Amino acid sequence: MLTVEDIYENQALQSKSVSGIQWLPDGSKFTYFQKAEDTGNLNIWSFDVKSRQREIFISSDEVPVLQERDQKKRFSLDNYIWAPNRRDILFPAGNDLHLFNTETRELSQLTSDAAEERDPTFSPDGQSIAFVKNDNLHLLDIESRTVKQLTTQGGNGILIGRFDWVYEEEFGIRTGFSWSPDSKYIAFWQFDETAIQPFPVTDFIPVHNAAQTMRYPKAGDANSKVKIGVVEIENGQIQWMDIGDDEDIYIPRMTWTHRSDILCITRLNRDQNQLELLLADVKNGKTSVLYEEREYKGWIEITDDLQFLDDNKHFVWTSRKDGWKHIYLGEISSAKLVPVTSGEWDIDGIVAVSEEKKRIYYTSGENNVLGRQLFGINFNGKGKLQVTRRPGTHSVNLSPDFEYFIDTFSDANTPPTVTLRRINGARQAFIEPNEMPALKEYNVPQPEFIEVPGTDGATLNAFLIKPNDFDATKKYPVLIYNYSGPGSQIVRNEWGGERFLWHAMLAQKGYLVFGVDNRGTGGRGKAFLMATYKNLGDLESQDQIAAAKWLAEQNYVDANRIGIWGWSYGGYMAALTFLKADGLFKTGIAVAPVTDWKNYDTIYTERFMLTPQKNPNGYRKSSVLEYVDQLQGKLLLVHGAADDNVHLSNTMQLAYALQNARKPFDMMLYPRKLHGIRGTDTRIHLFNKLTEYVLENL
Predict the structure, then answer these.
(1) CATH code where residue 667 lies
(2) d(Cα 502, Cα 494) in Å, to the nearest integer?
(3) Residue 436: what are its φ and ψ, rounded to 5°?
(4) Is residue 494 one of the residues assigned to a domain?
């Protein structure tokens, strides 16, 4: 039988991983991180794709500053960076930069001060390294080892070459500067966040509580003012790009065309339903609109799919403009878009573009939305080939010569395996088989995939985990897991990790565990995705309630013992659905929930809800606080006290409202813990608490 301690402490149940994969330019080899099983030392390995020989390339004994990937919020940062000469490797460590010569095996320290050299990036010609220090751009000349400061405006609320909190979190972007292809310019973002009201995050553990403040713009508040500058390396002069007179906008992306004097800037209005690609002349800052897209009943998704081709005539783009997310080939001269893919299915994203072969590789759930497969297709939309075949979820990393790819595969019953494959899909070698024989010892129940009815006749995808000794003549309690947020998908044929094992543990204890993807979730087209626009929580909760009612009608379900739980958006939905369901649920558990969308950040919230000023009724209806009088059953609220994403104030406001309504509830807080409530001891405490709550109240 599984236990919480097994799930979080037993190494035999922990997935092995291959991280930090980096290809050599010719595609002949790749390097990656792996720890030695006997000593636990971290090594960089190399793998020759033709000979299939692997060897330790650099060990932590040889290079003591070698460190594994650094997790910064949602970003995994490579702590080794190949130089363009493919001889030297840069190691950021201890707030300094170190350069290792793979031929002489010599390690030299490039910087030595207390300030962090953030996001170091080689120039394309390999002669310099740019980085951000003290909120300003700096440049290190590798040969002379001299450093010069390129900007001086940064500091005191002005950020240069890096992003404010909300951009990083909601636009998924980390490095705020970019080299031109000829190494003569660096384009950078500048943020003025002084208008954003500081928000306190309190550490309650010291006798004298400490409070850190963060710049966190809440829905309807002022955002940072953003500018795009380009600095010329030779003379240090900065040219500002013309991004328009409206300062209340977003610049979520910028990318160089294959001309070093032309920069493409993505401009997005605050409502996030009008996007423009601007072509900027870096010498004078003048811009012109290359392409414009509008969405009248929803929002425009920001991706990294835009690519300019070497011919300087075309670009590759993805859009939902025909109702499904597809690939288009655009003409720079006319902005005309020609569809490359089409059909009633969504692509997941572009993996790589081969201009030489005039071929685009992408992942999609075209044949089965529960999984993801790799496809290749010609620029003209012909010659489509499904490369991966095994049902499940494939995440791929193509070689620069497009001859091989690294395939990370899993399904609902198989932990991730990493293999090397040819571009035709033929397996060449296992990189990490990750067999996990311990799973068989625990006899882990397997999920089933089913379809259930939502409201309005909608068909929804769902999973169901049953006890191994399931008997259809008996009645079982059910715990529903949900996330439910826009574009998400929990019903996936992929390995679910620790969360799945906890669900399997509950199944071993005699519970059914169920999950459903309501309207608003991803993979099923724009109409399905954007059905919740301006009314978060409404249609989602209706679908969750409809699915729960369907469960209650099944002969093997105890209709008096149905519960719901979730985390983050799922915590919001668990609390909201629990309160609105008129006693349908016996138990609810909400971990780190948003309880009122006025508490959450501008970019995420307004993308789906507009501002509170423009959509007051939508905000009122979506607030959990509006429904506290309807509480029936047992409710547990859980939150990390140092959560800088969904602030503790969300749970405190709900607790306050429930107390004023004289409604009983339970609560568990985790001091000094962020949104993920991480740490082995903490996770064991948390999931033992959740287990105990389910066993006692469901």
Answers:
(1) 3.40.50.1820
(2) 16
(3) 45, 65
(4) yes
Helix (H) or strand (E) holding 332: none
Strand, helix or coil at 471?
Answer: coil
- Half-sphere exposure at residue 283, Cβ-oriented, CA atoms within 13 angstroms: 3
Q: Rounded CA gap, 193 and 190, in Å?
A: 10
Nearest to 406 by CA among 488, 447, 351, 473: 351
Q: What is the number of other CB atoms lying within 10 angstroms of the CB of residue 231?
A: 23
Note whether residue 475 is domain-resident: yes
Asked if residues 64 and 43 have their Cβ atoms less than 8 Å apart, the reply is: no
CA distances from 670 to 9, 593, 679 (A): 20, 14, 11
The segments of the chain whose pLDDT lies below 50 read none
Q: How far apart are CA 13 and CA 11, in angstroms?
A: 5
- Element (H or E) spanning 547, and its range? helix 538-552
- What's the CA gap between 177 and 151, in Å, rounded? 12
630 part of a folded domain: yes
Residue 81 pLDDT = 94
pLDDT, tens only, 125-159:
999 999 999 999 999 999 999 999 999 999 999 99
Give the CA angle between residues 260, 265, 269 to the nearest 5°: 175
Q: What is the pLDDT of residue 269?
A: 98
Nearest partner of 395 among 494, 522, 497, 498, judged by Cα? 494
Q: How many domains does the chain have?
A: 1
Q: What is the pTM of this model?
A: 0.96
pLDDT of residue 16: 85
Pair 453, 332: CB distance under 8 Å: no
Helix (H, G, I), strand (E, B) or coil at 335: coil
* 494 DSSP β-pair partners: none
Q: Flag whether 162 is in a domain.
A: no
Which distant-in-sequence residues (6+ apart) come within 8 Å of 446 by Cβ?
A: 412, 413, 465
- pLDDT recorded at residue 72: 76
Q: Give me the domain span that covers residue 501.
A: 438-697
Q: State the pLDDT at residue 444.
A: 94
Residue type for 1, please?
M
The answer to whether the CB of 466 falls within 8 A of the CB of 512 is: yes
- Count of CA atoms in the C-beta half-sphere (13 A) of 457: 0
Strands of the sheet containing 118-122, edge to edge, are 118-122, 128-133, 136-141, 146-149
How far is the C-alpha of 86 from the C-alpha of 143, rounded, in Å? 16
Evaluate whether 157 touches 213 at the Cβ level (below 8 Å).
no
